[in-house]
Each structure stands twice: as C-alpha cells, then as structure tokens.
Design goal:
With 321 residues, the protein is of the alpha/beta class. 26% of the residues lie in helices and 25% in strands. It has 7 helices and 16 strands. It has helices at 18-34, 72-86, 97-110, 217-227, 235-239, 270-276, 305-320; strands spanning 5-8, 11-12, 15-16, 38-43, 58-63, 90-94, 114-123, 127-133, 138-143, 149-153, 170-175, 203-207, 230-233, 260-264, 281-285, 299-301. Strands 9-8-7-10-6-1-4-5-11 form a 9-stranded mixed beta sheet. Helix 2 (72-86) crosses helix 3. The longest helix has 17 residues, at 18-34. The termini are far apart.
C-alpha cells in the first residue's frame, strides 16, 4: 500500500476554507516522510481553485450535475470515486459541518477505522491520531492500524501557511457518479446583518458561560464602553438567547481578528478558538486555571471575571477623569 494521503478540500461561496490548507500542509509533511504523495480531492469546485493548491502533489477534481452546491449524497458518491481511484492510505477530512457528513459515511461504507476531533496524526508502520476530548482537557491517542483509515481534523490544529505553498500539482478529472438520491439543495441562507459588525472591531470583549446570567452581561458591556469595544459571545450564550446570533464568535458564528480579544469566562472549546485564534492579542480571564483558552491566550489570569471587569472599568474611568 502506498503512503499517499488524500485531503478532502472544503469550499463555500467560491472560496477554499482554511481547514483545507491546514490539512494539506500536514499531509505534505507526512507524504514527504513516508515517500508518498499529498493528493487533494476537489469536488464540485471551480477549476481555478487548483491554482491555490500548489502544495499538493496532485489534485483530483470531480464536477458535474448535483455538485455545484454541497449535497451529502452526491459529494459522498464523488469522494468514494476518488478513494476508489487513488487508494490512499490515509484520508483527511475537516471536522466541520460538511466534513462530518463525508467522513463518517466514507468510513462506514468502506469499513474503515475513523478518528474524530483530531489535533494531529502520525504515519509510520501504523497510523495514530491524537484526538481532543472534554473540551480540550484530555487528549487521546488512537491506533488506527496500518491503513487505510479516515481522520477528521479539527480546525486550527495546524498552520495553514504550509498548505499555501506555490507549485504546480498534477491534475486529473473524474466523472461525477450518477446518484439520483433523495437530497436536493434548495437555498443557502446567509445570516442577517446585525447592529454591530464584530468582524470590523479593533477591540472585542467576549463573554462565555462563566458570565452566569443574561443580566450579568451588563458588566462586560460597561467594560466594552470604556474600551470603545463591542461585546461578543461564545455559542452557549447565543443558544441561550442572551446575545444575538450576529455577536457569535466561532466555527458556527463569525471569524474575528481584532487587535485585542478579551475573553471573559470562555473555556476555549475548539469551535470557539477557530473563530478568534487570529486575534493580534488574546487576553483570557477564567476562574478555571486549566481552561483550554489559556493555551491560545497571550496573557491569562485565573481569576473571577467580575472582579477583573469591575476593577478594570473603574481604572479606565479614573484615567479618563
């Protein structure tokens, strides 16, 4: 069995996602170490995207009816055709809303070992994957055997820079499998614009479940006012209706990159980290000194967020006079 690695490219709205380049950079390293090739499966995409995949040794495209927009049935059939044609030892799929549909179905249909929540994967005589559990508090290493196998990679687990290298990969096109199926793509619904565009803010005061209640968000709002910042939140607060959807940071919300990201009572789930990891400076305040948010914060304080907010707000008010 060759040591080829197949990366399943993900795209939306004509743009390749960061997770594609993160996986491609890792696949390139594994392929070089093992004497194999890093191959990208590009399904239903514009042919122009091939030019962005220069780090790959080869790109296999599948285009045709039913592949213009994401459809789990047609995309799974197309991915199965690529796997059948290339016989990779390892298939890397993003652990995203799209990737979850593809990876699990591929693994079940082909009876392949499958690891999810993966932070890293190594390939020697056997393939091992390191997965994140319990919100990042425990990492588990899984032996997936000699291959082939499937790993679902977490966004942000690797740098995307290595996957954006220049190059001219070999290209190959496969016909789209005929799959009448029962699922039809009808419409992509974009979220409505909010009162504040948190993606355009230089400073964000973000709150998580540690804030305790909707009424206590006022403490963060007071601090945000003194900092000339906007308030954002993690998904649990948006699901609870404490903040509007347009203030949500994370994989299912918005990606932000302010100059200062002040995380208050946010544990640091991978889905949230994905949305704010590119902030210039991250300051985290959490009463749990083991919270994963401290792994990405430039500055951290294991303390009560209310004490910190009140003291900081008062200090800023005194400074302004």
């Amino acid at each position: 069995m060759a040591n080829d690695i197949l990366v399943v490219a993900e795209h939306l709205g004509g743009k390749l996602s960061d997770i594609t380049f993160e996986m491609l950079g890792k696949a390139k390293d594994l392929a070089q170490a093992g004497g194999g090739s890093a191959i990208v499966a590009l399904i239903g995409a514009d042919a122009g995207m091939v030019d962005e995949l220069g780090a790959a040794d080869a790109v296999v495209t599948v285009a045709g009816d039913g592949l213009g927009d994401f459809n789990p049935e047609t995309y799974n059939a197309a991915l199965g055709a690529v796997v059948e044609a290339k016989s990779p030892r390892l298939v890397m799929v993003g652990y995203t809303s799209m990737g979850m549909d593809l990876a699990s179905t591929l693994a079940v249909k082909r009876d392949l070992p499958h690891a999810t929540f993966c932070l890293d994967v190594e390939m020697g005589d056997t393939i091992t994957a390191t997965s994140q559990c319990y919100g990042g508090k425990i990492n588990v290493t899984t032996d997936l055997g000699t291959g082939p196998c499937v790993v679902s990679m977490l966004s942000g687990a690797a740098s995307a820079d290595a996957g954006r290298a220049q190059g001219t990969p070999a290209t190959e096109s496969l016909p789209a499998p005929v799959t009448p199926g029962k699922i039809r793509f009808k419409q992509l619904i974009e979220p409505e614009a909010g009162d504040v565009d948190i993606t355009a803010q230089e400073i964000l005061v973000a709150v998580g479940r540690g804030i305790g209640s909707k009424d206590d968000i006022e403490v963060a709002e007071d601090l945000a006012e003194e900092l000339d910042a906007a308030v954002a939140g993690s998904r649990p607060l948006i699901d609870a209706g404490w903040l509007p959807k347009t203030r949500q940071v994370g994989k299912s919300g918005l990606k932000v990159s302010p100059k200062l990201y002040l995380a208050l009572g946010i544990s640091g789930a991978p889905e949230h980290i994905e949305g704010m990891k590119s902030s210039a400076t991250i300051v985290a305040v959490n009463s749990d000194k083991h919270a994963p948010i401290f792994n990405v914060a430039h500055y951290g304080m294991a303390a009560d967020l209310f004490d910190v907010c009140e003291e900081l707000t008062e200090a800023l008010q005194e400074r302004k006079g």
